[in-house]
Amino acid sequence: MTDYEKFLSRAGQSMRESAIRKMGTVLAQARDVISFAPGYPAEDSFPWQAFSEIARELLSGTDGSVLQYGPTRGFRPLREAIVALMKERDIQTSVDQLVVSTGSQQGLDLVARVLLDPGDVVLLELPSYTGAITAFRNVGASLVGVQQDDAGIDLEALERAWAAEHSAGRRVKFLYLVPNFQNPTGLLLGLDRRQAVLEWAARRDVLIVEDDPYKDLFFPDVASVADTRPIAADDRDGRVVYLSSFSKTLAPGFRVAWMHAPEALAAKFELAKQAEDLCSGGLDQRVVYEACRRGLLARQLPTLRAHYQHKRDVMVRGLRAKLGNTVYWPDPRGGFFLWLRLAEPLRSDELLPLAQARGVIFVTGSAFFVDGWGRQHLRLSFSAPSPDRIEEGVSRLAAAIGDLADASANVGAREAR
Amino acid sequence: MTDYEKFLSRAGQSMRESAIRKMGTVLAQARDVISFAPGYPAEDSFPWQAFSEIARELLSGTDGSVLQYGPTRGFRPLREAIVALMKERDIQTSVDQLVVSTGSQQGLDLVARVLLDPGDVVLLELPSYTGAITAFRNVGASLVGVQQDDAGIDLEALERAWAAEHSAGRRVKFLYLVPNFQNPTGLLLGLDRRQAVLEWAARRDVLIVEDDPYKDLFFPDVASVADTRPIAADDRDGRVVYLSSFSKTLAPGFRVAWMHAPEALAAKFELAKQAEDLCSGGLDQRVVYEACRRGLLARQLPTLRAHYQHKRDVMVRGLRAKLGNTVYWPDPRGGFFLWLRLAEPLRSDELLPLAQARGVIFVTGSAFFVDGWGRQHLRLSFSAPSPDRIEEGVSRLAAAIGDLADASANVGAREAR
Questions:
Q1: B380 and B315 in contact (C-beta within 8 Å)?
Q2: How far apart are CA A416 and CA B378, in angstroms?
Q3: Whole-number Å distance between alpha carbons of B62 and B50
Q4: Which chain B residues contact residue A139 at CB under 8 A?
Q5: What is the mean pLDDT of residues A372-378?
């Protein structure tokens, strides 16, 4: 039997590989490739010794539930710790409004399944996070991008997009946003716009799905905690579903993230999760809980901010020195990413094979656009490589851009003949 | 805002709580309740010290990838270990046919999403595993039950069910089966029937989804490894998707299970998993891998067989002594469950509150039926409680059945007047 197509669902037929994960595969197969592709946190920043100590205590066997099935909502003490952590973010919540998810990717998938029917519309930033795009597409949603400028999503474009969908008789279920150090652009949504987005959502009766994995990772030289105030902090209306994660601040291997939502929706996310994986990892949740309880997470944050700020510096310095004013990027004020625009007529999908040949990879811009745009852009992730490797990677990238520019010039010259 | 119904997808609107998970909640809230409800493995059988030792080594920090994001398919050495483990089950596979899933529940959900459109038909045993029922229902599939006898699914009933669906113009995508120590009946599908099911599936061009978490847990006094030969072992045609798990043999808290499928389908499961949670837990997968590599899993199995066989003995002895011939059950030859049928006119949903009042819980039979039947049955799980607690629980259950019989007799007497 070779023809399995006929057994596939419509979703199964249309599933496509994420460009980011594909780059992960390239990386796994190649030697001496410097990867600016996946948004991996720096492994040498993980508090290994503390994790080891915590795991030893948890695996003593005195509490059998550590390795047992657990509640679908998540380990209750962890949810209580998240309530406290959310309070520091000025978000009022309770254990009944929280669901622990197997990474924020699961949170996005649960949002998709609980809220979206085929044909329902999601509005999102242009560009936006590929993992969200994939989760929403897998349930047949229609994705409509909204332009951003350097202060984030454009409110007038948002209203126009909504109006166009509305007048075409389509149902806009929610607006998906990454307000803090957006993936892929690294942009920070202005505080006034956050307020305006919330008011707009109430006016148009649309939910907001606020995805906030990078909040704690602002760069102190150009941003402060005040700049990262979540939209959910001002939500008096129960209109915001808020997602955040321990993947970028503790470690992604634990697959522990959380969702905050109005109780009625949290209950539905719990049911959807029940059918997806019953519960998240028991040991993982307890390690993360202990990291919260013992102050390990709080102690990590200033270190991580300095760590990633420094790597941003190294990348930005390298780009300025090697590529001068032939490329443009908005300076990242936090997070893991730098969003590079190539000079005309260069295209990032044409650059990628040349960059691979030079030993450096990234994610092409088009992966983040729902409308086919983005070929002029690429996402560079400075979080994982060491400063030395970032410098070397930028040199390789500059050489590859030189290769592409030469090739373009030759084509131009031939065409001119 | 209080009305969230209008934001829900059709799936979101129809999601219902699993009866098994609900009992888990009851348990968490109650004191001194003996639970025969969830199919939890015995925590005191977990190899705590070995796990602790493995975790200590893994968390030394020498391999940063332990806590990093990993490949969606799963940690490659673990997949290689699973290839070897599958060979012992006489199933030929390769790393490209395997996907590590976040528990078998995720495997079931991936199967649902990749294979089923709303209205597609799944044939399954009557009764069947609730977690599968929920996953298939969440994508809008139509579930059609097939009668079993003491040797498992009835082939004639299977053909009749298929023919009825086929002639009504509906598409039967697959047959879902738990051939070894089925959840909830504990039944073992006869070897001749396994062969017949495979031939039938080829004839009718239907896939088989074989869910096999209990294979290794046969009871040596009444069964042998030969009795548990998977259907997938004789699949020359690429017609079987096979799911199994480390949850019952190592520990469920790791959330590590696997799927074996033809390469074309495995690739689709990988894509679906990418959008569901990116990857399973990194530390968890490595602990499980080390448990395979170091022979820990292999050493566990005889111990576990003896452990659960003994608990089965204790439960069966108690039921015989306390309930004599007023109840019926097929003797479990492996696994975690005993499927009890009450004498007429007793009903398990009426028994449950009386049992709770006596301090014992179970799952009512109707949770496992897709057609509203099963009120005469209950599932008793003997895996988690200690032998003493099993004895005491059976006494409480017998008392509750006495309460119900008295109440029924009174009603009968009143009605006779």
A1: yes
A2: 82
A3: 20
A4: 9
A5: 91
SS3 B156: helix
Judge: A239–B1 Cβ closer than 8 Å, yes or no: yes
> Would you state the structure tokens that stand for residue B93, as one six-digit string?
């596979």
Judge: A277–B105 Cβ closer than 8 Å, yes or no. yes
Q: Is the pLDDT score of B31 beyond 80?
A: no
Does the distance separating the beta carbons of A9 and B139 come in below 8 Å? yes
Tell if the CB–CB gap between B9 and A139 is shorter than 8 Å.
yes
Task: Give the Å distances, CA to CA, from A59 to A62, A249, A294, B119, B178.
Answer: 8, 23, 17, 46, 32
The amino acid that residue B4 corresponds to is Y
Q: Given a cut of 90, is residue A240 above it in pLDDT?
A: yes
Sole residue written with tokens 């566990």: B300
Q: DSSP letters of B203-267? A: HHT-EEEEE-TTTT-B-TTT--GGGG--GGGG-SSS-EEEEEESTTTT-GGG--EEEE--HHHHH
Residue B36 pLDDT exceeds 80: yes
B136, closest residue in chain A (CA to CA) = A275
Q: Which helix (H) or strand (E) holds A93?
A: none
Number of H helices, E strands in chain B: 13, 14
Q: Do A46 and B64 touch (CB under 8 A)?
A: yes
Instruction: Provide, as residue numbers in chain A, all residues whose Cβ is less than 8 Å from the Cβ of B268.
Output: 8, 12, 15
Which residue does chain B place closest to A70, by CA atoms?
B253
Judge whether residue A414 has pLDDT over 90: no
Q: How far apart are CA A181 and CA A194, in angstroms?
A: 14
Using the predicted structure, report yes or no on whether residue A27 has a pLDDT greater than 90: no
Residue B300 has pLDDT above 80, yes or no: yes
User: Between A8, A277, A278, which is nearest B115 by CB?
Assistant: A8
Distance from CA of A341 to the nearest CA of B (A): 27
Q: Which helix (H) or strand (E) holds A246?
A: none
- Searching chain B, which residue's CA lies closest to the CA of residue A120? B9
Q: Note whether A68 contacts B113, CB cutoff 8 Å.
A: no
Indicate the length of chain A as a whole number: 417
Report pLDDT for A308.
Answer: 98
pTM: 0.96
Are B135 and A173 inside 8 Å of each other by CB?
Answer: no
- Tell me which chain A residues have a C-beta less than 8 angstroms from the C-beta of B274: 17-18, 21, 134
Nearest CB to A262; choose among B4, B38, B59: B4
More confident residue, A27 or B186: B186
Residues of A with Cβ-Cβ distance to B113 under 8 angstroms = 9, 11-12, 138
ipTM score of complex: 0.95
Q: Quote the longest CA-to-CA distance of chain B.
A: 80
Tens of pLDDT, residue by residue over A296-319, are 999 999 999 999 999 999 999 999
List of chain B residues whose C-beta atoms are within 8 Å of the C-beta of residue A271: 15-17
Q: How many contacts does A have with B, using Cβ atoms within 8 A?
A: 258
- Give residue B415's pLDDT: 60
Contact A138 B113 (CB under 8 A): yes
Sheet holding A98-101, edge to edge: A98-101, A257-260, A240-245, A207-211, A172-177, A121-126, A142-149, A152-153
Q: How far apart are the first and last CA of chain A?
A: 55
Average pLDDT over residues B229-255: 98
The chain-wide mean pLDDT, for chain B, equals 94
The answer to whether A397 and A358 are in contact (CB under 8 A) is yes
pLDDT of B28 strictly over 60: no
**CB atoms B262 and A4 under 8 Å:** yes
